[in-house]
Structures are given as structure tokens and as C-alpha cells.
Automatic annotation (TrEMBL):
Domain PPM-type phosphatase: 175-399
Protein name per the record: Serine/threonine-protein phosphatase
Gene3D superfamilies according to UniProt: PPM-type phosphatase domain (3.60.40.10)
Annotated SUPFAM superfamilies: PP2C-like (SSF81606)
Keyword Transferase (UniProt): no
Residue runs in coiled coils: none
PANTHER family: STAGE II SPORULATION PROTEIN E, STAGE II SPORULATION PROTEIN E-RELATED
Source organism: Actinoplanes aureus
Keywords, ordered alphabetically: Hydrolase
GO molecular function terms attached to this record: phosphatase activity
Entry-linked Pfam families: SpoIIE (PF07228)
């Protein structure tokens, strides 16, 4: 049996299975003992900390607390190099010492990380031969690869979380006399970041700007394009608060006759809702190719408010449309993206559809906005039953009772 070859094959196979740094580090030192040494220590420095592992322990220190000889090895030039550790008493991380000799290998991590693998032998064991040094250096290669991959993955996850936090809709504001509630569920395969636009902003305490739309595409690219539209919308507020004017100005900014990027296209509803002096609310909506909002009357009647208009970014000049909706106290206007009605599931894999949405709103007519939004989200989730779906966004605007 070729033991060195088997060890290396095992290292490449096992260390390639996981992107968990701590798991890979622990596996590396356990593979090294007893195949390469009687004891082993793996030390990695990154994020201004020193992390170390033995087969049965792990710890974290500041780099300055590492033994001086180990700091010197870490400071050397990049490259996998193995060299003998002469006999003596060697201080180790965690306050322990080793009496003996061994091999020290500088890991080559293609990342902002320094690493060293220390393979220790007792004083009564033979010193490392050239073949031992060569095997230690070869063993360090899959360890270095696993560390690099794990750290890269960790940072990708962190970046995705930062992007997600920046691109997800902000909490809804409080507006006297108006109930606002939303539901937002990005497509499952898009790292929890979606291209649906959901933005609400208080204007003067008694009115609010509402926008809900759907950027073509999915994932980070669509989310960034949607965020760009949100920022542009906010920048327009000092210029105009008329929804139709806002749509036209946004179209001027996004239209590119030679553009090949699908994320320049979007469907969008922009509305301004304000409280009426004697109760109720007035909603002025401008539409660009978006599914019609549903108006829920206190009688339980639900009507689709057909507005029309063309998709944002499709042409210049564009044709958009506008409608004014008066809500009595307790009545609602429900905005939604096509991810709601196009959600495929149920017993036959059919679309959720507008008819089911209307039936749900009829059943929940007069209920608080938060209850309605939550019920829509739950119903579509139940309908999907875990299946993939498009981005889903819902905004419920209700005149307070």
C-alpha cells in the first residue's frame, strides 16, 4: 500500500467536501496525526486574529500572542516550504510547549490569510528526512486550497448579506390615518435578493409616496437595478410629487435605445396616498405596464382598477396612465407583483391567479392591512408548497377606520 499517496488522496477528497473553515482545519490536523507526526498544530491569521487547531483543541488569540518563532515563519514570503524544526522546547499556541523536533510548513493561501502547519515529533523519534519534508509540503497543498476556498466562501456570504440588507425594502413609515403593510419574498434561487421594487416614504405626515414594481431579471443584477430606481424616485421628490410626472422622468433616465441589459425594463406603479379631511384616503396612481391594483370595498366587493400604461424603459416618449381611487374608512388598495398571481403550485401545478387573490381579499375585506398582507404571503407560500417562484411583493394601503 502506498501510504503517502493514500494520505494525499484522502486529504484532497475529504478537504474538498466542505466550505466550513473550522471543519476543514480540524480535519487537516486529524489527518496529519499519526500519519505525519505525533502531534500537529494548524495556525491561521486573518481578520487581525490568530486561529489555531490541534486534533482535540482550538483557540483564538491576537497574532502578537503567538510564539515568536511562529510569527517569524508566518512573516516569510508566500509559498509552500517545509523545513525541519530542530530539537528543543518549542512554545505553542494556547500556552503549551513541545519538547522534541518536527517539521514546519508555511501554507500558501491565495487570500488575505497567513498559515503555518506544525508537525511535531518526540525527542526520541528520528529526525525528519527529505522524504518527510516533501510529503509535508505536498500535504500542505490541499490544506491551503481548503482554507482559501472556505475563506472566499465566507466573504461571499458576508457580501451577499450586506447586499441583501442594503437592497431589501426599508421598514414602512407611519402615516396618520393610513394603514400600510407589506410582504416581500425574493425568488428562492436568487440568494434572498430580488428585483421587485417596494418603496414607501412619508411625505408630510398625512400623505405617503408608494411604489411597487418588477424589474426584469432576477438576483443581484435585478436587485441593483431596482435599488437604482428607488434612489431615482427619492431624488425626484424635490422636483415633483405627481406620480405620472415621476414615471415619465424615470423613463427618460432608464431608456436606452441600444441597451442590451434586460434590467433596464420594469413594470411600475407609483402612487401618492393622502388622508382626506373627513375620513378616508385618496390614492393617485400612475402605472407603467404593471398588474392592476385591487380595490377592496367595505362591502366585500373587490374590483381591479385598470390603469394600463406601457413598460418602463421600453420606448421614448412612453405612454403611461393614471387613475384616482377614493377609499372610504376601512377600504383598501392592494398592489402586488406578478409573482403573486403567477406562483405555480397547488394540486395540479397551476398559477395562483388573480381569481384566487380576489377571493382571498373578499374574505378578508375590512381586516387590518397587516392581516391582509400576511394572509396573501401565507396563501401563496402554501400554494407553492416549496416550489421555485418569481419574486413576490405585496403592498396594502388601507384607510383607517
Amino acid at each position: 500500500m502506498d501510504e503517502p499517496r493514500d494520505l494525499l488522496m484522502t486529504a484532497y477528497r475529504v478537504l474538498g467536501r466542505s466550505l466550513n473553515l473550522h471543519r476543514n482545519a480540524a480535519i487537516a490536523v486529524r489527518l496529519a496525526v499519526p500519519a505525519l507526526a505525533g502531534a500537529a498544530v494548524l495556525v491561521l491569521t486573518f481578520d487581525q486574529q490568530a486561529h489555531w487547531w490541534t486534533p482535540d483543541r482550538k483557540g483564538t488569540d491576537v497574532p502578537a500572542e503567538l510564539p515568536r518563532w511562529m510569527r517569524d515563519v508566518l512573516a516569510e514570503a508566500d509559498g509552500i516550504r517545509a523545513r525541519p524544526l530542530p530539537a528543543g522546547r518549542w512554545p505553542l499556541p494556547g500556552g503549551t510547549e513541545h519538547d522534541g523536533h518536527g517539521v514546519v510548513v508555511r501554507l500558501s493561501c491565495a487570500y488575505q490569510c497567513q498559515g503555518v502547519l506544525v508537525l511535531l515529533r518526540g525527542a526520541d523519534q528520528p529526525a525528519a528526512a527529505d522524504a518527510d519534508l516533501s510529503l509535508a509540503a505536498r500535504f500542505a497543498a490541499p490544506v491551503s486550497n481548503a482554507v482559501t476556498a472556505a475563506l472566499l466562501y465566507r466573504d461571499q456570504v458576508r457580501l451577499a448579506e450586506i447586499l441583501r440588507a442594503a437592497l431589501l425594502p426599508a421598514p414602512l413609515p407611519s402615516v396618520a390615518g393610513i394603514e400600510l403593510a407589506s410582504a416581500y419574498r425574493p425568488a428562492r434561487e436568487a440568494q434572498r435578493i430580488g428585483g421587485d421594487i417596494l418603496h414607501v416614504e412619508s411625505l408630510d405626515g398625512e400623505s405617503a409616496l408608494c411604489a411597487l414594481g418588477d424589474v426584469c431579471g432576477k438576483g443581484v443584477e435585478a436587485a441593483v437595478a431596482g435599488n437604482r430606481l428607488r434612489m431615482s424616485l427619492r431624488a425626484l421628490l424635490p422636483v415633483t410629487r405627481q406620480p405620472l410626472d415621476m414615471l415619465n422622468l424615470l423613463n427618460e433616465a432608464t431608456f436606452d435605445p441600444e441597451g442590451a441589459d434586460v434590467t433596464q425594463f420594469a413594470t411600475l406603479l407609483i402612487g401618492v396616498v393622502r388622508v382626506l379631511p373627513h375620513g378616508g384616503a385618496l390614492v393617485r396612481l400612475a402605472a407603467g405596464g404593471h398588474p392592476p391594483p385591487l380595490v377592496v370595498r367595505h362591502t366585500g366587493v373587490v374590483r381591479a382598477q385598470q390603469i394600463g400604461g406601457m413598460m418602463l424603459g421600453a420606448d421614448r416618449p412612453a405612454r403611461f396612465a393614471e387613475a384616482v381611487i377614493r377609499l372610504a374608512p376601512g377600504e383598501s388598495c392592494v398592489l402586488y407583483t406578478d409573482g403573486v398571481i403567477d406562483a405555480e403550485g397547488g394540486p395540479r401545478g397551476t398559477a395562483f391567479g388573480q381569481q384566487r387573490l380576489v377571493a382571498l381579499l373578499t374574505e378578508y375585506a375590512g381586516r387590518p392591512a397587516a392581516v391582509v398582507a400576511e394572509r396573501i404571503e401565507q396563501s401563496t407560500s402554501d400554494w407553492l408548497h416549496g416550489a421555485d417562484h418569481d419574486d413576490i411583493a405585496v403592498l396594502v394601503v388601507r384607510a383607517s377606520s
